[in-house]
Structure formats: C-alpha cells, structure tokens
C-alpha cells in the first residue's frame, strides 16, 4: 500500500502546506495513476493548524473524487523532519478541531471509506469517533502522562510521542469505561 499525503481540498492550500506549486494536481494525478495500475492507496491527512478547519470539505472532496482509495488515515502530527522543526506553529490542540474531525469521519465512513485516526489520544476525541482511533504509536516511541495513570482505556490509547513534551492538549483527562464508553 502506498501512503500519500493530501493536505486540503483546495490546490493552493495543499501547495502551500508542502511548499511546492502544482503539488496538488500532481498528487491527485499520481493517486489516479496508482489505482489504474491496481496499487493499493492510503490517503494520509495530516492534522495540522493550517488545514484542520477544512477537514469536512476535504472529506467531501475525497468521498466525491477518490472513493476508490483503500484507506484514509487522519493523522496527528509526528515530530519528525519539517514537523519537528515547526511543531509550535503547525500543532493544533485536538479540542479545537474536534467538531471538524468528527464531521470528516462521518462523511468518510458514510461514503464507505475505511477510515482511521492515528496518533491521537482517546480522551481528546469525541466519543463518536473514538472507535476509529488506532493505537498507532510504536511502543518504543510512545509515552503517557501522569494523568494517564488512572485511565481505564490506556491500553487502547495511542498515548504520546515521547520526543515531544510540549504538544499536549488541554483536554487530557482519564476515561472511565463505565462513565464514558469509547467503543
Ligand atoms: S488519559 Fe492518557 S491514556 Fe487516557 S485517553 Fe487520555 S491520553 Fe489516553
């Protein structure tokens, strides 16, 4: 499976995110060419401050134009390369785009697209989308906070990238399975 980032439904927003004119058109053509060659394709939507407001519009774009892809991954930022150097300007608190994320997941899943949320903590997701969250951070990169000690869903939660200590949501709160079922 080839994993291909698509940052936005608008060409100029995607091009700005990757700092390359024409990148959006090349990316969409590339996805079409891969599928025409029967290659499995995963679209990776990186959840970053500059693009999260238009998540529902991007979900509509994918559902209308790229319904044939094999998986859509909505991905919290991983602190590597460009993202690591610019984490403070591109990270957004998941609480601030929870509505857009919930709507995007609804649009994608209603369209029949296999959809996952990676690199996000369960407690900062709306209960409706928690079943789409995966424990995606490898054990050797992962850590938890003191608040997680009493959390009853910790074994299912992706936790945090250990190498970044500041990109932490203000909404980290232990979950009780009995009070807030998550799946
Ligand atoms: S409290 Fe910690 S373990 Fe529990 S859902 Fe939140 S981040 Fe995950």
From TrEMBL:
<protein>
    <submittedName>
        <fullName>Radical SAM domain protein</fullName>
    </submittedName>
</protein>
<dbReference type="InterPro" id="IPR058240">
    <property type="entry name" value="rSAM_sf"/>
</dbReference>
<dbReference type="InterPro" id="IPR013785">
    <property type="entry name" value="Aldolase_TIM"/>
</dbReference>
């Amino acid at each position: 499976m080839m994993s291909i980032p698509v940052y936005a439904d608008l060409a100029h927003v995607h091009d700005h995110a990757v700092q390359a004119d024409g990148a959006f058109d090349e990316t969409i053509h590339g996805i079409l060419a891969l599928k025409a060659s029967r290659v499995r394709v995963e679209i990776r939507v990186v959840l970053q401050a500059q693009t999260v407001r238009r998540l529902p519009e991007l979900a509509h774009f994918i559902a209308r134009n790229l319904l044939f892809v094999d998986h859509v991954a909505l991905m919290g930022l991983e602190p590597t390369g460009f993202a690591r150097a610019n984490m403070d300007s591109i990270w957004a608190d998941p609480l601030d785009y929870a509505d857009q994320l919930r709507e995007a997941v609804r649009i994608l899943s209603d369209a029949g697209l296999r959809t996952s949320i990676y690199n996000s903590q369960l407690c900062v997701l709306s209960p409706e989308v928690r079943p789409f969250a995966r424990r995606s951070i490898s054990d050797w990169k992962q850590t938890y906070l003191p608040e997680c000690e009493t959390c009853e869903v910790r074994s299912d939660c992706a936790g945090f990238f250990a190498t970044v200590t500041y990109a932490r949501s203000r909404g980290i709160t232990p979950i009780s399975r009995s009070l807030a079922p998550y799946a």
